[in-house]
From TrEMBL:
This is phospholipid:diacylglycerol acyltransferase. InterPro entries: AB_hydrolase_fold, LACT/PDAT_acylTrfase. The chain crosses the membrane at residues 65-89. It is a single-pass membrane protein. It holds the Pfam family LCAT. GO terms for cellular component: membrane. It comes from Abeliophyllum distichum. It is found in: Membrane. It catalyses: a glycerophospholipid + a 1,2-diacyl-sn-glycerol = a monoacylglycerophospholipid + a triacyl-sn-glycerol. Belongs to the AB hydrolase superfamily. Lipase family. Its EC number is 2.3.1.158. SUPFAM superfamilies: alpha/beta-Hydrolases.
Length: 691
């Protein structure tokens, strides 16, 4: 009986929670009140107390802090802060002093009497259009017609590998992989917002609605931006549906011509359409000569990538841009393959190299447009505004000194060699061309490499796996590549992608546009290898932001070897500093809208199509409207009412006003013609091209 009572005492009395002081008092009290407890009972009690103490000490020991913990906390703080600011913004009353939201341009223009006149067609660019699932593998069978791209992106976190598999295209055909059908989201919702709270077309659509636009006279020409342009017609009949929609809007809106507003890559997609629609079937749409003159009033190209973008090159080479290089510099190892074996960039490269549309954005025009080893149209550009003012003052003083001394020469400052689009090592970007290695055919001979199987990291196969270390070192040793030699480099490191995509795109300059070969669709998206339609009353606008450092060329290096690395090249983020402040983190910057350099966005309107040229035989009027970037001054301005950034410009008040006025019937002359802040005219004068 005594043993049972002792057992009850241990089970029912000991678990009661005491503080450390209470425990001591309780033990002391027990020892006073029960002095006759046997020695074995006292031993059991003390052992139990010691065990409880040890357990609590173990619980109090802090866990080892890891890098991933820091990253998660930082992301958590940023998201919490953003949502808190957003919540406060929506909770604040609109009539508080100093917090009045600026009046939308559509409301102001409506008061002035502007109303909807010409139907409007919006053409989104790469990445910004939504994609939804129509058929998938078992891992996604419950997501029929759910967005895989654009929207909340929750599926990235739930099933990342399945998500990547469904966004990939077939590596041989550039079309759907077996058992997978992902299609463009239709309607205005396709690209109004890229993600919750991140607008693309939404503000422009809202302001168009304020002057009377709606579904019957406004249309979003959504397409699968991953495909080559002709493949959007072959697989989805997107071009045919766009042709029919424009004809329908023309008829149902009193035979009013359409105003087309393409953005980014959508600009060259619609350029392809202009040639396709008048070409005979089966390759073309069969509209015949005069279709564009009859149906289109104006094309207002926003952020046009007419001549390509350098960041397409870095994407193919190493799945990088300045942002990725910056993250690597700030948090070494975070995106590298050895970090948790995630192989983030390898996955991005594997998927993006199945998208033919990326090849459409490779710079066009060769060394004539983008420069060679010793020359480029942007030479003399200074990125640092303070240095720019100082150098201008210094140049004027030296010029005066030169004149006063009767022509005595003075030393000209070394200019940035933007023509070297890819340089391996900072020295290769600065050396005189005579000191650079000469290219030979043996540079681009692929060696045989055995597969690198490393199950510990779950290798992601890229085309780099098929190259030997010796062949990679040969292309990288102190060499610099211009746009001309760069194409050979890309064919060498991404042969499957380039072979497949170059059947749909071309990047040269035509010598004779009347050559029958230019009737093939591979030339239709290159403004230097195709003619504009015979539509003398049509107008073409180049609308883009300026005043933002934009990627122009890169300094690369070989990646450090690692157990999981399969991408041997990366931007050299340690390459920094130059006389004009244009080299930062391995990237040379020029003027532009943060994505498209001024040279690519403005040259065709400034020179290539200006007046009657062989590229513009009917003399279609062209206008340049530049928007000087001004960052937002307060939270109420969102991403900026005067932003010139590539996507944020879609909320620029001045740009919206220009689009609305033209849609309501205004001409380029009524907008007061060109508005230029950049050096695009000087750049264009330096380019020696036959017009």
């Amino acid at each position: 009986m005594a043993h049972i009572l002792r057992f009850r005492k241990l089970c029912f009395l000991e678990p009661v929670k005491y503080s450390s002081c209470d425990k001591a008092k309780a033990v002391e009290k027990k020892s006073v009140e029960t002095p006759k407890v046997e020695n074995e009972d006292q031993g059991a009690v003390s052992a139990l107390l010691e065990e409880n103490t040890k357990r609590k000490k173990q619980k109090k020991q802090p866990k080892e802090w890891r890098c991933i913990d820091s990253c998660c906390w930082i992301v958590g703080y940023m998201c919490t802060t953003w949502w808190l600011l957003l919540f406060l913004f929506h909770c604040l009353p609109g009539n508080l002093p100093g917090l009045k939201v600026p009046e939308p341009p559509g409301a102001r223009l409506k008061r002035e009497g502007l109303t909807a006149l010409h139907p409007v067609v919006l053409v989104p660019g790469i990445v910004t259009g939504g994609l939804e699932l129509w058929e998938g593998k078992p891992c996604y069978e419950d997501l029929f017609r759910r967005r895989l791209w654009g929207g909340s992106f929750t599926e990235i976190f739930k099933r990342p590998m399945c998500w990547l598999e469904h966004l990939s295209l077939d590596n041989e055909t550039g079309l759907d992989p077996p058992g997978i059908r992902v299609r463009a989201v239709p309607g205005l919702v396709a690209a109004d917002y890229f993600a919750p709270g991140y607008f693309v077309w939404a503000i422009l659509i809202e302001n168009l609605a304020r002057i009377g636009y709606e579904g019957k006279n406004m249309y979003m020409a959504a397409y699968d931006w991953r495909l080559s342009f002709q493949n959007t017609e072959i697989r989805d009949q997107t071009l045919s549906r766009l042709k029919s929609k424009i004809e329908l809007m023309y008829v149902t809106n009193g035979n009013k011509k359409v105003v087309v507003v393409p953005h980014s890559m959508g600009v060259i997609y619609f350029l392809h359409f202009l040639k396709w629609v008048e070409s005979p079937p089966p390759m073309g749409g069969g509209g015949g000569p005069g279709w564009c003159a009859k149906h289109i009033k104006a094309i207002m190209n926003i952020g046009p990538a007419f001549l390509g973008v350098p960041k397409a090159v870095s994407n193919i080479l190493s799945a990088e841009s300045k942002d990725v290089a910056f993250i690597r510099a700030m948090a070494p190892g975070l995106l590298d393959s050895d970090f948790l074996g995630l192989q983030t960039l390898e996955h991005v490269m594997r998927v993006s190299r199945t998208w033919d549309s990326i090849v459409s954005l490779i710079p066009k025009g060769g060394e004539t447009i983008w420069g060679n080893l010793d020359w480029s149209p942007e030479e003399g550009h200074v990125c640092d505004s303070a240095k720019k003012m100082y150098q201008q003052h210094l140049h004027n003083n030296r010029k005066n000194e030169y004149n006063s001394k009767g022509g005595t020469s003075f030393r000209v400052q070394e200019l940035t060699k933007y023509g070297r689009m890819i340089s391996f090592g900072k020295a290769a970007s600065d050396l005189p061309s005579s000191q650079l290695p000469v290219f030979g055919s043996e540079e681009f001979v692929r060696g045989n490499s055995s597969p690198n199987s490393n199950s510990s990291c779950g290798d992601v196969w890229t085309e780099y796996n098929e190259m030997t270390q010796e062949s990679i070192k040969k292309i990288a040793e102190n060499k610099a590549y211009t746009v001309r030699t760069l194409l050979d480099l890309l064919r060498f490191i991404a042969p499957k992608m380039m072979k497949r995509a170059e059947a749909h795109f071309s990047h040269g300059i035509s010598d004779d546009l009347d050559d029958p070969k230019y009737s093939h669709y591979k030339y239709w998206s290159n403004p230097l290898e195709t003619k504009l339609p015979d539509a003398p009353d049509m107008e073409i606008y180049c609308l883009y932001g300026v005043g933002i450092p934009t990627e122009r060329s890169y300094v690369y290096k070989l990646s450090a070897s690692g157990r999981c690395k399969t991408i041997p090249l990366q931007i050299d983020s340690s390459a920094d500093g130059s006389d004009n402040g244009c080299l930062k983190g391995g990237v040379y910057f020029a003027d532009g809208d943060e994505s498209v350099p001024v040279l690519s966005a403005g040259f065709m309107c400034a020179k290539g199509w200006k007046g009657k040229t062989r590229f513009n035989p009917s003399g279609i009027a062209t206008y340049i409207r530049e928007y000087m970037h001004k960052p937002p001054t307060s939270l109420l301005e969102g991403r900026g009412l005067e932003s010139g950034a590539h996507v944020d410009i879609m909320g620029n008040v001045a740009l919206i006003e220009d689009v609305l006025r033209v849609a309501a019937g205004a001409s380029g002359a009524e907008l007061l013609g060109d508005r230029i802040y950049s050096d695009i005219r000087k750049m264009s004068e330096k380019i020696n091209i036959r017009l």
